[in-house]
Amino acid sequence: MAHRFRLRPLAASVAALFGSAVPGLALAQAAAQADTALPEVKVRESAPKDDYNQGVATVGRVQTPLRDIPQSVTVINRAVMEAQGATSLADALRSVPGITIGAAEGGTIGNNFNLRGFSARTDLYLDGMRDRGQVYRDVFSLEAVEVLKGASSMLFGRGATGGVINQVSKVPSLTPYNEVSVTGGTQPSLRVTADLNQPLSETSAFRISAMGQDVHSTRDVMENKDVGIAPSLRFGINTPTEVTLSALLTHNRDMPDYGLPPVSGRPASVDRHNFYGLTDDRTIQDVAQFGAKISHRLSTETTLLNQTRYSWYDIDARESGPNNVGTRNAAGVYTPFAATNLSNSTDLPNSQLFVGLGSHDRQITDRSLYNQTDLITHFATGSIRHELIAGLELGHDENEVLNSSRNLPGNAFFTSVPLEDPGRIAGAELPSTPGNNVSAKANTVAPYINDNLTLSKHWKAVAGLRYDRYSASLTNSLNPPPSASQTVNFTSVRSGLIYQPSDAQSYYVSYGTSFNPSLEALTLTNGQQSLDPETNRSYEVGGKWDLAGGDLSLSSAVFQTDKSNARSQVSPGIFELVGDVRVRGFETGAAGRLTRNWQVLAGYTYLDAKIVDSAPGDTNNPEGNTLANTPKHSASLWTTYNYTREWELGTGVTYMSERFASNTNAVSVPDYVRWDATLAYHQPKYDIRLNILNIANRLNFEQLIPSDKGRSVPSIDRTALLTVTYKF
Questions:
Q1: Contact (Cβ atoms closer than 8 angstroms) between residue 170 and residue 230
Q2: Number of other CB atoms surrounding residue 348 within 10 Å
């Protein structure tokens, strides 16, 4: 595509770009606390700045104490990410039970998360605004990651069935702060990050975060070469009118990994390092996001916010992976197992099995422009106090996908390799055949209103209403039908009642709805155009407790989400209505300090995720089956102890029970158990941190892929990371 640009060399290009004051959007709600009359937040004089207990979140449009949000919320802040050695969004979310990772396939690439059993592919946000790009995300520019669980279309529009994942950007402040970190790993890997914050005047500041890395994996052939920069500028800090400009620019050249194929209902029992693909595969992604936010305090009680973001994502993906398992005859002709053999069941030894390799090539250009206006006002009607948010969201999305294939004519593979030893194959000389080209666009118009009511000293309520008009259309070059369009009008509701008998206790009941249009992703083609929107209802009852003067927060909840007209992918680009899906569950969590020197972040989630109704004879989604990639039990524990002022020791375990690769439940992966540890030495001017990941060197499967009968991607072997951070 002639309009494609690259961000190489990044340092020169982005420096020149920001030097020209290209506008961008920083933290969407960073100044909301200053702009609105929020409840008093007690600051503990002795509490270090690296507390795991965040206490507040911005997912409700304004910064709100967690105890006043009638839904489960998990916040992974910078302190947790640094202690765990997290570098990617997937790393950061590993500490959140109830989230699982799906690999890129079926017309999409990039981060694909499941939240409470439902896909959160289109439920990623950056500072409260939709971040829909099919890209892999880093955390170098983030201050925290917030996970709001439960149906939330009233707050965020289409999607948000299991919840949303909101990335919170670093924002300039009036306190000087500069640091540079260098990390070396045993994979091997090298990563360099910088975070520089400089006040420019009494009311303005500039901040720039940057990252560069060359990271290998313990998986054979894997390597990621990435760079990124995130500059931001704030004017009018602590004045009635504040303006924030920022940008996020990244370039990635990564090696795709489609994992191991299944044999007899489990991941193939082969060397965990085996790579089933071509050595010259690559996924090249460029991201450019620019925006602006204006916050104007009209009075002591009323604030007007307006924010705009333009996002551009460009992906050039040349990818291949295991297509199916089969045999070869004496003449070398490969024959895959029958499609009806859903688990690739066989009595043959691995030495007699072969894997067909298929290509997954595409070029994707994704553009979006969003504008969001919020009027936030505080007033009283009699004895009832209100925090009213009235807003309007306008959005435009465009997506172009050029598909191609290097497979043999009439086949889903281009070659076959031995299962036990696939070897290393380059595919530069393979002929490429153009495939279906998809061009799609969508428009969103959504007014909304939300009221946070303080009914009395002990009772609060939340009530919200949002109307979405979502219009989408697409055209196909090959696949029928040649074009499709859809307009969905949906009204979402949000309601909650909160009882707070004391400052340390909060109990709530909530109800919310959400919807998922069939053309929501804008990338999938044949088989879904005429499907009705999925509709969802979520119920939750829970409690939150602040102990030890607010140092330690506990939470627990029981919930149920019902999805009607549920869709399920049966092959790349082909979806069908499953019927009705229900997820019931329980979760509990803890975050904060057990003592002054001992911190903990822990959680457990139980999910009973079932297909409760499906079409007769539907072998892809049988009634009563468990939803794909949804473990019944998941838990995490991370704890650190500062046994002197300088020395910090920490460890943690992440667990998931057995999961199914697809709704057929024919292929499953064993439970996941990962044990990590950290040792850090802190000084005023520098920190030295050692992280050891997967100490037991256990074979775990981190990502699952439902197509091709269910593939699974092994996680890293035992890995050590040494990070040196210099502060100035």
A1: yes
A2: 12
